[in-house]
Structure formats: C-alpha cells, structure tokens
C-alpha cells in the first residue's frame, strides 16, 4: 500500500467526545500502517470565528492556528474530519473555521465564470455523529448536511469526500461506541 500524508481534524468543540475518539483511533491506526499523520483538535484552536465585513478583497488576516489548518490541508493527500451534527449543521466553531480559512486564491479560484477548486487531487473522509436515525436523515432531511459537506464545502475546494455516519450518538451504549471506534481504526489502517 502506498503511504499517504494524512491530516486529521477533530471538529468537535469539546475536549472529550465521540468525535475525538474516532479521530484518535483513525490517526493511531494510520500511523501504525506507516502513513504520515498530522492531527489537530478544534477545541485547541484559537481564532475569531466571525468572517465579519471584510469581504474577499479586505479579508481578515488568518490567525496562526488557521494558517496551520490550511497548511495541513495543502500538505495532505487525504483529510479526515470528525464532527457532530447539531441543528442540521456542523458546530459553529467548525463552520467558522471553514468561513475564515477557505478563501479565494488559496482554496478556490474566482477568476473564471465559476469558482474553480484549487486543492484537487486530494481525498477526504468525514465521520458524522448525530442522534437522527440514518433512514430519517435520508428520507426527511434528504442528507442535506452530507451534501453540503461533500459538495459545497470540501468538494468546493477540490476534496473528493466520503461520509461515514454514526447515529444515536447522545445515548449510545459503550459497546456501540467501541464498534464505531473500531470502524474508524479500520479506515485509518487503510487510509480511507
């Protein structure tokens, strides 16, 4: 198997979570398989989440932590993000990271008629935890958050994305969580 450069981001704002257990297992297995891994936790990152009124031409300078995230994504061949679904979206701090760090000229090019992704050739995997049963998420909500992450966020900057969902997260028994962590570990060993 070809060794990959992998960037892993725990997108949960709390220090301890199922999301952190998933990315920790993924990163450990990927490293044991010989992949080069860089890992960050959203709760450790310091930045202003508010894009503000700067606009693309007068954007706020990126804080060092956002530069680190962006540098890791540019370095990586594969990006892994683990996040809960809250109120149909990602946590505000993770959304703020996307808003602030994914800017034109670095992640997408706005000089043509349509924006073009600048980070093509990379893959990504999202671990999405929620309380919404998968069938309900598909039938009633139309997998809206999955579509947003795959097409409008990560896909928009060029990452070909797969999403793995884990539902019933708030009250999941430890045995179920252990199974999810094992699944994340299996993905990490294969750099998927």
UniProtKB/TrEMBL annotation:
Q: Where are the transmembrane segments?
A: none
Q: Per the UniProt record, which EC number(s) apply here?
A: 1.7.-.-
Judging by the UniProt lineage, the source's domain of life is Bacteria
UniProt keyword terms in alphabetical order:
Oxidoreductase
Kindly list the GO molecular function terms attached to this UniProt entry. Answer: NAD(P)H dehydrogenase (quinone) activity
Domain Flavodoxin-like fold: start-end pairs: 4-184
User: Which Pfam family, giving just one, matches this sequence?
Assistant: Flavodoxin_2
Q: Name one GO cellular component term.
A: cytosol
In the record, the note on similarity to other proteins reads:
Belongs to the NAD(P)H dehydrogenase (quinone) family.
- The protein here is known as FMN-dependent NADH-azoreductase
């Amino acid at each position: 198997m070809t060794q990959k450069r992998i960037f892993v981001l725990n997108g949960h704002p709390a220090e301890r979570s199922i999301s952190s257990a998933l990315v920790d297992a993924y990163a450990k297995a990927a490293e044991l398989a010989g992949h080069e891994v860089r890992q960050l936790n959203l709760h450790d990152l310091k930045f202003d989440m508010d894009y503000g009124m700067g606009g693309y031409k007068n954007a706020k300078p990126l804080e060092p932590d956002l530069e680190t995230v962006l540098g890791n994504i540019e370095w990586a061949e594969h990006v892994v993000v683990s996040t809960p679904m809250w109120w149909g979206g990602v946590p505000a701090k993770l959304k703020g990271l996307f808003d602030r760090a994914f800017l034109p000229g670095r992640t997408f090019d706005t000089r043509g008629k349509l924006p073009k992704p600048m980070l093509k050739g990379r893959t990504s995997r999202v671990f999405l935890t929620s309380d919404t049963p998968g069938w309900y998420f598909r039938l009633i909500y139309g997998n809206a958050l999955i579509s947003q992450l795959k097409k409008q966020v990560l896909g928009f900057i060029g990452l070909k994305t797969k999403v793995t969902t884990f539902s019933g997260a708030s009250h999941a028994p430890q045995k179920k969580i252990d199974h999810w962590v094992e699944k994340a570990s299996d993905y990490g060993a294969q750099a998927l």
